[in-house]
Design brief:
This protein is α/β, with parallel strands linked by helices. It has one domain: TIM Barrel. It contains 12 helices and 8 strands. α10 crosses α11.
């Protein structure tokens, strides 16, 4: 039975998406931090995009100060963003691909094509004392290159699995990728498109230490509240890991 605690980081980007729909002052993303942490989130994630389509610079400053667990900053591998990470020094930075035309992140980094830029960014993050992760497809080449470049972790893109729920191949790729990454000495994270309904098979992969989930949680929060949405997701993850929730609640 799997009992190891799997971390849940809540991505709060889409609180800002609602605000930016009217370019107004609310809702305020930083106000979600304490609610998520109280509901069982192990950390907070936010993605500052180059086009500032949702989270803004002021949000990042506020979130970095408010988080009492850990803050994972998602950014593109650009000089501006790396300099921001060096200044703020969040607990972790996840480097992700970006295209201005995309609605949301469409896949993993081209680790081979971006190797020189990634190597420089990872070295700078390491010098600043910031843990690093690369958002990649769960293939052996991307994993091996991530290790060779010096990343501390990889976040496996779960979008293909989420969008093809009846296809066994994407889930199997995640299983193999997680095993390979862990055997290479990398911490293994995962995320994109995960929901309470589909998180179970991914959460059950023993090598995956951490899940980053956002859009689903914010969507559920509209109907049941943010804390309830986080708790609901946490329960689904724990059930998949075989965690005895009654025993966990009794533990000192």
């Amino acid at each position: 039975m799997k009992t190891t605690h799997q971390r849940l980081y809540i991505n709060i980007d889409h609180i800002a998406t609602v605000r930016q729909a009217r370019r107004g002052a609310e809702p305020v993303p930083v106000e979600a931090v304490a609610l998520c942490e109280r509901a069982g989130a192990d950390g907070i994630t936010a993605h500052l995009r180059e086009d500032r389509r949702h989270i803004q610079d002021a949000d990042i400053e506020a979130i970095a100060t408010a988080v009492t667990t850990v803050f994972n900053l998602e950014i593109a591998c650009t000089p501006e963003m790396i300099a921001l990470a060096e200044r703020l020094r969040p607990y972790a930075v996840t480097l992700v691909p970006e295209r201005r035309e995309e609605v949301t992140t469409e896949g993993g980094l081209d680790v081979a094509g971006a190797a020189p830029r990634l190597a420089d960014a990872l070295a700078r993050l390491r010098a600043a004392g910031v843990r690093s992760s690369l958002f990649i497809a769960p293939d052996r080449d991307s994993i091996a290159r991530s290790r060779d470049l010096g990343a501390d972790a990889v976040e496996l893109h779960t979008g293909t699995y989420a969008h093809h729920p009846h296809d066994a191949a994407p889930l199997q790729a995640l299983r193999y990728g997680a095993q390979h990454a862990a055997s290479a000495g990398l911490a293994v994270h995962a995320g994109h498109g995960l929901t309470t309904a589909n998180v179970g098979p991914v959460a059950a992969i023993p090598e995956i230490e951490e899940l980053n989930i956002g859009h689903h949680v914010i969507g559920r929060a509209i109907f049941i509240g943010l804390e309830a949405a986080v708790r609901e997701l946490r329960a689904a993850m724990d059930a998949a890991r075989g965690v005895d929730m009654d025993a966990a609640r009794r533990a000192p």
